Amino acid sequence: MRHLYLAATGQNRGKTTTALGFLDGFIREGLATGFMKPVGQRTVIQDGVPADEDAVLMKAVFGLPGSLRSMSPVHIPRGFTKAYIAGEVVEDLGARVRQAHATFADCDVLLVEGTGHAGVGAVIGLSNAVVAAMLGVPTVIVSEGGVGRPIDEIVLNASLFRAHGVEVAGAIVNKVELDAQPGIVRTLERGLALHGIPLLGVLPYRPILSNPTLGMILEGVRGEAIHPGPDLDAVIGGVAIGAMEPGHMLERVGPRTLVIVPGDREDVILTVTTAHLVGPARGGSSNVAELTGPARDGHDGAALGLVLTGGYRPRPAVIDAIRRADLFATLVGEDTYAVASEVHDLLVKTHPADREKIALIKALVAEHLDIDRILGAASVA
């Protein structure tokens, strides 16, 4: 069995994205593929079994073999760390990880996903570096775009893995603005080579992969659902703040835009709903033009939803207009700035229902990473 440890330099670097792409590539190669996340920090209950949400995601997307207990053997729920330090956790957690790992012996390739940076888990004796060493697995480290920052982060994390005797098979840099940075791949390659770390590839920046779905917005802002719209799994393309004259507001509303606007700004709300109903202007005047003035060239007014702030509930006629337009809308008590900050800070994870996002991830990895080279970095157990 070949196996590989996928690590990252921190949270939200793209490790889950990379793991999805790796697994898709392995399966396309016709390999019997397994996945495990030895230590999980974000636990969900699936069919009565506690498991890290990434294990649940991979099993759901790919129909992978193995039980969730084997795929996700150790969890760190709230209070676990203090209990461990106080000596209240007496189980040999390392043995649990090793036993789970042994259940994948019949796989052709096993992807082991870490959590956070190389040192995460050290507080319970199971840092990523310790786990990779215990399982004898080489690691690939994922960081995100830039030049100095990803190289610094990768080298720092590689030093801890190497201190534990773990081979660093290479690195992947995610969220790279390839068009804006000509030659960036060669620069990263040379910079990492100075530290003996091969660059295994880069993944381009795609906003949709970092943006939340409407369902995540509803949950994150803890709002009252006014209207769900056609698809809570739809991913937002951007955010616009409704704090200006409606015609100017409309210029900033493009496909998939989430509009955050005070609930008493009925002029803006009606402008957005009307534009959504009318659709792209095709020359000449329209109801939208009469309401708002001429739209900017290329603008189609196709908002995805509304977050109504300040606790101001629009009149019933305005709510009816939102529902006729079939726009997502939620009402929250906080002011616009606070809500915009919450939306910006949402921790975005990929979920099994994110079909569009998952399809894009698979396509990106297939196009930009050499799966045969990745497989070549894996060790044989």
Report on this model:
Helix 1 packs across helix 15 and helix 11 runs parallel beside helix 13. The chain folds into two domains: 2-208 and 350-380, P-loop containing nucleotide triphosphate hydrolases (Rossmann fold, 3-Layer(aba) Sandwich), CATH 3.40.50.300; 214-345, HprK N-terminal domain-like (Udp-n-acetylmuramoylalanyl-d-glutamate--2,6- Diaminopimelate Ligase, Chain: A, domain 1, 3-Layer(aba) Sandwich), CATH 3.40.1390. With 381 residues, it is α/β, with parallel strands linked by helices. The strands form four sheets. Strands 1, 2, 7, 8, 9, 10 and 16 form a seven-stranded mixed beta sheet that branches. Strands 11-15-14-13-12 form a five-stranded mixed beta sheet, sandwiched between helices. It has a two-stranded parallel sheet with strand order 3-6. Helices cover 40% and strands 20% of the residues. The chain has helices at 15-28, 53-62, 68-71, 80-85, 93-102, 128-135, 148-163, 184-193, 214-221, 246-251, 266-278, 287-292, 316-325, 336-345, 355-368, 371-377, and strands spanning 2-8, 33-36, 39-40, 43-46, 49-52, 74-75, 109-113, 139-144, 168-176, 199-204, 224-227, 238-241, 257-262, 303-309, 328-331, 379-380.
Task: Please outline what is shown here.
The protein has 381 residues and is of the alpha/beta class.
Describe the global form: globular
Q: What distance separates the N and C termini?
A: 5 Å
CATH homologous superfamily annotation of the largest domain: P-loop containing nucleotide triphosphate hydrolases
Under the CATH scheme, the architecture of the largest domain is 3-Layer(aba) Sandwich
The radius of gyration over CA amounts to 24 Å
> Overall pLDDT, averaged?
87
Count the beta strands: 16
* Biggest pleated-sheet summary: 7 strands, mixed
Measured by DSSP, the beta-strand proportion falls in 15-25%
Number of domains: 2
The computed structural class is alpha/beta
CATH structural fold name of the largest domain: Rossmann fold
Low-confidence stretches: 281-301
Reading off the top of the CATH hierarchy, the class of the largest domain is best stated as Alpha Beta
Task: Give the % helix.
Answer: 25-40%
Question: What's the total helix number?
Answer: 16
